[in-house]
Amino acid sequence: MERTGRRLGREEAAAGGCGSWRCRSGAWRVVLLLYWLALRGLVHLSFQRLVQSARGPKEFSAPRARAYLENITAIGPRAVGSPENEVFTVNYLLEQVKAIERESSRAHNISVDVQRPTGTFSLDFLGGFTSYYDNITNVVVKLEPRSGAEHAVLSNCHFDSVTNTLGASDDAVSCSVMLEILHALSKSSEPLKHAVIFLFNGAEESILQASHGFITQHHWAKSVRAFVNLEAAGVGGKELVFQTGPENPWLVYAYISAAKHPFGCIMAQEVFQSGIIPAETDFRIYRDFGNIPGIDLAFIENGYIYHTKFDTADRILTDSIQRAGDNILGVLKYLATSDKLARSHEYRHGNVVFFDIFGMFVLAYPARVGAILNYTITALAILYLGKKILQPRKRALMYIKELAIAFGFTVLSWFAALLGILFVAIFISLIGRSLSWYTHFYVSVFLYGTAALAKLILVHTLAKTFYYKHTNEQFLAEIFFDVPLVFWSISLASLTYLGVSSAFVCAIWVAFPLLTKLITYKELKEKGATMKFFTMYLLGMSIPHVYSLYLNWIIFEMFVPIMGRSGSEIPPDLIVAAFIVVISIILSSYLVKFIYLARSTKTIIITLTTVSVIMFTLVCSGVFFPYSSDAANPRPKRIFLQHLNRRFHSLDGHLEKSDSGIWINGLDYAGMSHITPHIPELNDSIRTKCDEDSPLCGLPWILPVDYLLRKNWYLPAPAIAPKEPIRFQLLSKKQMPQGSTKLTFEASGPSHMSLFLRPHQGSTLFRWSLGDGTPMVNAIDGDYFVFYSHGLLALPWQFWIELKVSDENTRGMVTLAIVTHYLFGDDQKSPQLHALIDRFPNWTFPSGWVSTYDQFVF
């Protein structure tokens, strides 16, 4: 093939001109740098854009909501069962509702009910477990027209908090927003068509118990046709719609129509529902147990301090509260006056693709329309590529061959970048320098991003230098435009066929490059790779680039903080490194062609490599400490400590062995490596050993997360003596007519307990009085896990299990362990636990409580 591109360049230079982009090797780097800085700035500005507080009495007032927030958090930590949660917060909510009722318009009627439900259910979350709750608290408020209403929309928040935290964002701010929405709606002189039920639930952190109690037992629940759930995965910022449905596309359109500042994306929904994020919200309960469609919203900014003592009211911007209030007030008012709410079952079918444009507005269309659109875009790409294949046979075969080879080089560059960067991430993890980017996120970009780009460019530079040495540059530019087009087209068609709504991202990466190609084709053909062509090309590609940056920013905002609480088994550097490589591949996919048009890539490869090597050296030398105690922007390390008594009983009831100590879990991959210099006794010599003969290793898990936290420490300490000790007994043992054995137990203790069960060989647990009656085994560790909590007052917990025994076993039928958790009050922390917590450095969040573990064999 004739080297037309280089010949044109020489002729232009000989004529004394330098219009060619290739003649000015430095100019394109400057333009490219300015391009990325401009896109990054645009994305940054879109996330900073909040709103000012409203002034009108019938509008949402963030200052009033802030006053509610500060008063709720001033009560202190609000664990389920504590007086702070069950009495003080409940009384405060009732007082505020009464005050709102006194000032409300005569067009409305406000009813209040305090519910104390008892119930049980199973949940296939964290491998699967069963939950039992007794006498927990819901404060339910109904706003309806004076004439009454048959149908209702539910708004849900929770006022309980994780132990040792104030829970300002999770979820006191949402309850404050709901109080202010109730105030604003009650002031209106226009009656609503339907009722609005405000559920202030008091047991969400105990794994969604209060919402289950409401939706399965409360008499108002039958009137609920849709719900809006207010949650948090961070502290302030914008609230993201991350779940809708199931189906019921009319709810998405309602949100789009009514929310003043919409922010949501179907991709967030598909990521969350994939199970990648180990979390659930009350949305799950209303969907699965109430068969009700809804909208799930959550604050996602600054997840580093979510569920820590730093989650305080002063860290939530008033403008963030205003934004959330405007949106939710608009949506609730829209739903409460909508004709569709009463007939929501008629609008159930179908899904919707939706995504916001920089938080300014949301685009939405039916999933079936999206499928047609995606296949149409794919067809256009096939048409474009087909014109090149439908040439004379020799040229067509040559094109297909070159396309396949170029695709091979592209895939090779991807694997080279991925494997190389993963090797770096593994090395950094092995030498104990993981999470160096946790406080300084730019470190991950300069460490992994620059290395990934250098690898990508290097592979293509070598291909250009050795394989494509005598090939026309413009032909190479064409072929390396077609390669990513083929990749994105295949991805688009495949994801659409699989019903993945997030395929719209692939559609953007096919449609806009094709359009850009159409616009720039004439310029490239007639004048070559001029600066005008380069600029036009970048402008055309700016939409997929900027939107991908926008989505990636959201993903990073959610996922990077999760790496600080993802457990001891998942190397976070591998995840972040792989993600950065994927982003680098995506963003550079249509820019690879310029490697083949450029005179030299030596400078950029050296620059990128130098930056990466310098950053690698700094990381390995420990310059970047993962955590921060900065008062304005803390990045704490999370640690759980439980002062523990363990007692193991034999089949005849005698005590076989016992011990006591402080059991310690670091919630991230670094474990205790950064703590040992401050507290020398916390080292690997006291690592906990798993007792294989005991369920869940014989350790006092409050939830079945043992598979995430296999590295933990057990520091010997004196035994504890809680004022409210556990009382556990076998009430009866009966042989059933069908040959099974029924064991009935009674337990009384603190507000939080866990029950572990492991049937012995030859025994099968086939029925019990919990959940739906069919025992749910944990799919990860094979044991049975029951989570129990109760409110302020509760009767002893009675339950029974029924086992079938096929073989006689001298070691008994089942091993059972009952675990207590003292999350508040005088029993919560021992003097030894207090003393140890005080020794932790200020860049940590050590959360501690007392536990007991009693194991029996029956």
From TrEMBL:
Cofactor: Zn(2+)
InterPro entries in UniProt: ERMP1-like_C, ERMP1_1-A_TM, Fxna-like_M28_dom, M28_fam, Peptidase_M28
Localization of this protein: Endoplasmic reticulum membrane
Endoplasmic reticulum metallopeptidase 1/1-A TM domain ranges (all copies): 399-620
Broad class of where this protein is predominantly found: endoplasmic reticulum
Peptidase M28 domain ranges (all copies): 138-330
UniProt GO molecular function: metal ion binding; metalloexopeptidase activity
Cellular component GO terms held in the UniProt record: endoplasmic reticulum membrane
Keywords: Endoplasmic reticulum, Glycoprotein, Hydrolase, Membrane, Metal-binding, Metalloprotease, Protease, Transmembrane, Transmembrane helix, Zinc
Gene Ontology biological process terms in this record: cellular response to oxidative stress; endoplasmic reticulum unfolded protein response; proteolysis
CDD domains (alphabetical): M28_Fxna_like
Entry protein name: Endoplasmic reticulum metallopeptidase 1
Species of origin: Anolis carolinensis (Green anole)
